[in-house]
Amino acid sequence: MSMNVAQSLIVGKMIFLVLLASFLALPALALPSAAANQTNFAQTCRRAKLVDGYYLEAWCLDANGTHPFKNTLDLNFCVGIDYSTSVLQWMVYGKLANYCSHCSLEHDNPNHPVLDCACQTSGQKSGIFSTLKLDEGIYNNNGTLTCDGGIATIG
Ligand SMILES: *[C@@H]1O[C@H](CO)[C@@H](O)[C@H](O)[C@H]1NC(C)=O
Ligand SMILES: *[C@@H]1O[C@H](CO)[C@@H](O)[C@H](O)[C@H]1NC(C)=O
Ligand SMILES: *[C@@H]1O[C@H](CO)[C@@H](O)[C@H](O)[C@H]1NC(C)=O
């Protein structure tokens, strides 16, 4: 089958439009899921507090922004320390309870809650206080708090 110039121009135009459309559609498709679970959890969760030293408790809204769910996230699943400096860091199954004590939640900026703990490795005499910005590693995924390594229990 052969095409004349007008036909091939139309086909070329269609291919261009399809490419353009898929290019334009990409950001639109990517945004909703990113918005649903990459939000700063503090902006969509309320009454964040630390319980039993290592559990983050908060009431988080679903993607609709209507229903609040009570979340309890065990930070041992995603927070640990740098073993050479004893500084808090994000780590899958970091088990911070093995190294840290005196943990508290700073609320100086309510939209950016900060974890504050004294941590030490077995070789060190005393703990070193350091902080971790929780909104940089914890997400509200449609009402459920998640972090790399952990997911909250609801209720
Ligand atoms: C965000 O949601 C998508 C789709 O539901 C999922 O594949 C992805 O793992 C989630 N990311 C995080 C950080 O929860
Ligand atoms: C969220 O809104 C959608 C559409 O309005 C509805 O079908 C769904 O049940 C809502 N989910 C919750 C958890 O309220
Ligand atoms: C959020 O969860 C509800 C059930 O609690 C579900 O009906 C809805 O589809 C979910 N929304 C998204 C964006 O995942």
Explain what the structure shows:
This protein has helices at residues 5-37, 41-44, and strands at residues 45-51, 55-61, 68-74, 79-81, 88-90, 100-106, 114-119, 128-133, 138-141, 144-147, 150-151, 153-154. With 155 residues, it is an alpha+beta fold. The strands form four sheets. A four-stranded antiparallel β-sheet has the order 1-2-3-12. Strand 2 (55-61) and strand 3 form a beta hairpin. The model is unreliable at 15-36 (pLDDT under 50). Bound molecules: 2-acetamido-2-deoxy-beta-D-glucopyranose (NAG) (3 copies). Residues 62, 64, 66-67 line the site of one 2-acetamido-2-deoxy-beta-D-glucopyranose.
Question: Short description, anyone?
Answer:
The chain is 24% helix and 37% strand.
Backbone structural class:
alpha+beta
Helix residue percentage: 10-25%
Shape call: elongated
Q: How many individual β-strands?
A: 12
Oligomeric assembly: single chain
Q: State mean pLDDT (0 to 100 scale).
A: 82
Q: Uncertain regions: pLDDT < 50 for 5+ in a row?
A: 15-36
Tally of helical runs? 2
The proportion of strand residues reads 35-45%
Q: Which small-molecule ligands are present, each listed once? A: 2-acetamido-2-deoxy-beta-D-glucopyranose
Strand order in the largest sheet = 1-2-3-12
Element order: H for helix, E for strand: HHEEEEEEEEEEEE
